[in-house]
Every structure is written in C-alpha cells, then in structure tokens.
Amino acid sequence: MKHSDRVTPDRKRPPAELPFGEDFQTILSLIGDGVVSTDQDGRIILFNRAAEDIFGYTMNEVLGCSIDTLIPTRFHDHHREDVRRFCSSEAPLRRSMGAGREVLGRRKDGRELAIEATLSRQMIGSQHIVTAVVRDVSDRKTLERQGQVVANEVAHRLRNTMAVVDSIVTLTARTAPSVAEFKETLLGRFAAISRTNDSLIRGSWTDASVRLLLETELAPYQDSEGKITLTGPDISIDGQVAVALALVLHELATNAAKYGALSTSAGLLRVDWQVSADAIPLFELIWEERGGPTVVAPTRRGFGSELIARSLGPHGGRAASTYAPQGLNCLIRLPFRSVNRPADDPVQ
After folding, report:
1. Is 222 exposed, middle or buried (0-12, 13-18, 19+ CB in 10 A)?
2. Residue 188: which of 159, 220, 156 has the closest Cα?
3. Which letter does DSSP use for residue 10 in this model?
4. Is the pLDDT at 199 greater than 70, yes or no?
5. Is 134 in contact with 54 (CB distance < 8 Å)?
6. Is 137 exposed, middle or buried (0-12, 13-18, 19+ CB in 10 A)?
7. pLDDT tens digits along 288-341
8. Which structural domains are found in the chain, ordered by start?
9. Phi-psi bin for 98: left (phi > 0), alpha (psi -120 to 50), beta?
10. Phi, psi of 47 (to 5 degrees)
C-alpha cells in the first residue's frame, strides 16, 4: 500500500436526478462488491455500502463529487480518456478493468489500494450512465507478489544447489579410492545439503539459524552430556551461505568422527561463534577439538580442505586450521553482510 495526504472530495455539483427507489437501494446494500455509478460528467450518483467500506467515504460524502476523488491524481487524465473511449458508440457495453493488471484506487485516508472493476454503460433517459462494480484485491495482490518472490527464491536456490552438487561430485570422484567410498562420501555430503534445505523450508526460505545448523549436523555424535558444547548468539545467515556452511560443518564433523575428538568416548568438541567488533565486522566460528587421538598435520592439502575453500570462497569467507597435537582448531570467517539478523525463532 502507498500512502499520501488525506483526500478531500472536490466541490460537489448536484448529480443527475435518477429514479433510484428504496427497494433498489436495499438491494445494492446487500451486494458484497462495491457499486459506483457516475453521470455523463463523471459525477458520482450511486455509491453502495460495500463501496463505502472499500474507499472509506460515506455515500453522502461523495454523491455529486467527481469520480477523480476515488482515483490517484497521477491517473486522472488516463482514466478520463479511458472512460471517454468506453462511452463511445463503438465500445462494448461491458468490460473489465484490472484483469491481469493492477488498477489502483484511492481511499479517503489517502492510501492506495489494488482493485478490479467491471464497467458497464447505460442510457437512462437522456443521461449516459457508467457503472463500476469494484472489488478490493489488495490482499490477493500481496499474496501473489509474495508467492512470486518465493518462486524466484526457490529457482535461484535450485540453480545454486545444482552447481554445488556438480562441484561435490567432481571433487569426490577425484579423490575416492573405491566406488563404495565414493557412494558413502557423496551420500553424506548430499544429506548435509538436504538437512539445510529442510531448515530453510521450515523457516522463511531466506535464512537459517547458525545454532540449528550445528545442532542438526552434530546430533548423531552427541552420545553423552557435555561431549559437544555450542556457544554463541542466535543469529541467522543468508540461505545460500547456510548451504555452504552446512557442507563445511559436515566435513569437519565427518573428519572428527573418523580421526578426531568425535572418534573416542573421551573426546570433546566445542564450537563458538560471534560477530567481531572489527572495522569491517566478520562472522567468526571457532571449531575446537580436544581429547581425541594425537593430531598429525597433513603433508598435503586434502579434499576436505579444498571443499571447505570452495564452499566459503564465493561468499568472501575463508577457513584456517591449526593441527595442534591435542586436537584440531578451525577458524571460519565470513563477511558480516552474510549474517542477516537475530533468528526469528531462536533455538535455546
């Protein structure tokens, strides 16, 4: 809805005298759609109860006023020309406005609203009368726009997800020593994407809670109280970044379960995240393992490191790992623009 200053009806002129009896007025008051009739000078001569609800005027306020009272100022000239053509002898006696396009009306308080109207013209005596049956479709138009936004978001996310899938398949095939391991690794990574998309679907499709991503990914490994500690504010990150972060977390969790702190009963994992107070704020996540097997730094960059870099890179993020003997430390940093706002439904 658009807003402008409160509208004052123009000076009234006496409308055309037409034989509308009480029975006719009673019937009009029962109609759910607004009915507005004008004389050949464009002055309102009929205004039913539903029209009062739609436009905010009483019948007595608008009778004798120009129909321009109900139309945004910028459309006055266009509307007059439209009605002139409609009233020409070649034009059909009935036509629709707003079908397939948005037509705007103006309320008494200055707000604009989307309407659909069906026009008809009649000759009553010597008077050329135009009647509009009007329906407020503002709520429907809003829902249509919201639906289109969601459809565009889904299509965009699908394209991005397919690109991620293609990259995962290529990298996994390059490093897997056997078909069985290729299948197992691939399915695990696809599952991480699926879980994140499930979180997005349950939410707004636009962002996901960092805490929820971590709890979902680490749930299979939380076999004892205190084994995994999560500490950080309830913030949400952009949906595209959430998919990338989910892949990174899945990679870290898988490695921890195979070789690190999550592979032993004594192992502990702590994950902290925050938004830094730097001049250019950053989202920071620290993954810290303790109590697992002694860590030995790799001699070459493996697939996991490459996947993490590829996942974070397009979003301006990076990860730095420290292979301390007592356990792996990994610092993930992403620009603060990827962090939208506090989560709508915080996870305690």
Report:
1. middle
2. 220
3. P
4. no
5. yes
6. middle
7. 999 988 888 887 766 677 778 887 888 888 999 999 889 999 999 988 765 554
8. 22-136 (3.30.450.20), 140-342 (3.30.565.10)
9. left
10. -155, 105
Q: Are strands 228-231 and 268-275 parallel, antiparallel or unpaired?
A: parallel
Which of 19, 13, 15, 14 minimizes the C-alpha distance to 124?
19
Query: For the segment 46-98, what is each residue's pLDDT rounded down to a tens digit?
Result: 899 999 999 999 999 999 999 999 999 998 988 888 877 777 766 555 555 54
Separation CA 21–CA 158 (nearest Å): 61
- Spatial distance between the Cα atoms of 69 and 64, rounded to a whole number of angstroms: 11
What is the overall mean pLDDT for the chain?
A: 76
| Predicted model pTM | 0.47
How far apart CA 237 and CA 282 sit, in angstroms, is 12
Kindly list the distances between the CA atom of residue 185 and the CA atoms of 164, 214, 310, in Å, as whole numbers in the listed order.
15, 19, 17
Give which of 217, 236, 243 is closest to 315, Cα–Cα.
243
Which SS3 state, helix, strand or coil, does residue 112 take?
strand
Which has the closest alpha carbon to 347: 230, 240, 239, 269? Answer: 230
3-state secondary structure 80-109: HHHHHHHHCCCCCCEEEECCCCCEEEECCC
Cα of first residue to Cα of last residue in the chain, in angstroms, is 37
